[in-house]
Amino acid sequence: MSVSTTEANPPPLEALRHPGRWVAGAAAILLAFVVLESILGNSRLQWDVVGEYLFDEGIMKGLRLTIILTFAVTAVGMLLGTLIATARMSKNPVLAWLAWFYVWVFRSVPLLVQLLLWFNIAYLYPKIEIGLPFLPPLIEGDANKLISATTAAFLGLTLHEAAYAAEIVRGGILSVDPGQTEAGDALGMSRARILRRIVLPQAMRSIVPAAGNLLIGTLKGTAIVSVIAVDELLYAAQFIYNRTFEVVPLLVVATLWYMFMTAVLSVLQYFVERYYGRGATRSTTASPWAQAKAVFLRARGVFTTPTGGKA
Amino acid sequence: MSTTTIPAAGTARADGRSMVEIRELHKSYGDLHVLQGLSLDVAEGEVVCLIGASGSGKSTLLRCINRLETWDAGSIAVNGDLIGYRSSERGGVPVLKELKAREVRKQRAEIGMVFQHFNLFPHLTVMENLVEAPVNVAGVPRREAVATAEQLLAMVGLAEKAKSYPRHLSGGQQQRVAIARALAMKPRLMLFDEPTSALDPELVKEVLHAMKQLAETGMTMVVVTHEMTFAREVAGRVAFVDGGQIVEVGPPEQVLDNPTHPRAQAFLSRLV
Ligand SMILES: Nc1ncnc2c1ncn2[C@@H]1O[C@H](COP(=O)(O)OP(=O)(O)O)[C@@H](O)[C@H]1O
Ligand SMILES: [Mg+2]
């Protein structure tokens, strides 16, 4: 039986047009243009001042500390968070309970309060000694010297981050089919190896987007440590405008850098997500560039496959 | 040889020594007494099919054999070695002492298991699925593990799929990879838990074919299945599980065609 067409070969296919999309797109572009015009065209923003301070030496130093702090906090926080997540899921009830307690404490104390507490730790513990009980201390010293403002910032941000990272990692691990652990067990693999090689790489698919958000949150969270006089990006900007009174242009300088760094991190996140998504779907996902090209070509009536390859 | 009934200590075939010896196994989940003093012997090179109603404890039994589950009383030995325990004594009385996790892992590595839902590692290619455990658990050199994996993939008819990811394969192909993955550890015993239940009907045959081939190489196999044709053709014996015990065991034609136990009669009449 053949398809009931009059011709021998079925006629070519014509895709449905979407005029509504073009109208909505044009309206959105117009709106964006109006907003942008009002910002860029505002002479009170003093774009010349922004340009003057964008690569200022003090701003650069602040930017460097912001980047270092962000990556140090994220690295140590994620590591600590992974440990806390595994403790939370361990069969040892003491470990599980302690992990729960940690997450509860550090999610309930506001970051700002925690930073101020670390900054004022010398009030609680004027002298700090680190070592094993009943043995001479390995490190000892004046709390004010040991815990500088930067150390306090690092400690506060990291402990805060670890609590959130623990929940993200735990959620990721729970999202992996228990059959995966079982298969590893049946092959004689160790629990640590199963976690590292089998479960975590799959958990990454749900961990990465959440961790990406956390990382960007941390980047901007570092601005809060300006309250304890840590010389990061925002503090550097404040340091300058306290002298010159060019408040708004310097806030714009800091904002531009935060936006730039967030853009870089978003691109990074995209590639990491793609890496951990391998083997996850039946079709290989096309890059956003290929997707955009496919949309454009489709609009012009050129046929491409849904994944962006040439038909 | 006659069909053994309660309490069915399965009589192993006279020609082989026992590969699996299960004695008086008891297991409860809370108040649910799943295994109630179950005993079974499987001879070396023998294929035993386990049949029985859903929830009768077939999976639990299978998972006990490689210690994925613990049990409350009784013993299991594979190839003469107690699983999960070693013989000891306390105050002159013999006891079984639980093994450390590391020792249990060594025992598991010698028992292959195939799951209903394949449980392949989706983020690893077929080849990586096959060499992961041989290299990292058994310490086989990678080059050697890859060569073995290639042979096994050829055996299950998937030589050209080594670089594919599991999700790009059909269910039948995935299950054949899972069989090859278990075989890559060179097990002495293979356990199958409803290996074809998750497959579309037209894909069942290729998996059963691979299993039949494996049985012909002399592999000892314990298979939970509803595929009566497979049981008839391949199994040396069929064991019917009910109420946490094996209530009937014997050659397939005997158990499947002339069951003596009323529960087995009822179960099999419903299947036809
Ligand atoms: N982890 C578990 N916790 C509680 N009950 C379980 C668990 N696993 C299995 N069971 C119960 O034990 C019984 C036997 O299960 P199972 O061995 O899977 O049966 P079968 O494989 O024969 O269908 C069922 O009633 C099931 O609900
Ligand atoms: Mg089952």
UniProtKB/TrEMBL annotation, chain A:
GO-annotated molecular function: transmembrane transporter activity
Membrane spanning residue stretches: 20-41, 62-85, 97-119, 206-230, 250-272
Predominant place of localization: membrane
GO CC annotations, alphabetized: ATP-binding cassette (ABC) transporter complex
A Pfam family the protein falls into: BPD_transp_1
SUPFAM superfamilies: MetI-like
Keyword vocabulary terms for this entry: Amino-acid transport, Cell membrane, Membrane, Transmembrane, Transmembrane helix, Transport
GO biological process: one example: amino acid transport
Bilayer topology annotation: Multi-pass membrane protein
Signal peptide stretch: none
PROSITE patterns registered for this protein in UniProt: ABC_TM1
Compartment annotation: Cell membrane
Similarity remark: Belongs to the binding-protein-dependent transport system permease family.
Official protein name in the record: Amino acid ABC transporter permease
Annotated organism of origin: Nocardioides marmoriginsengisoli
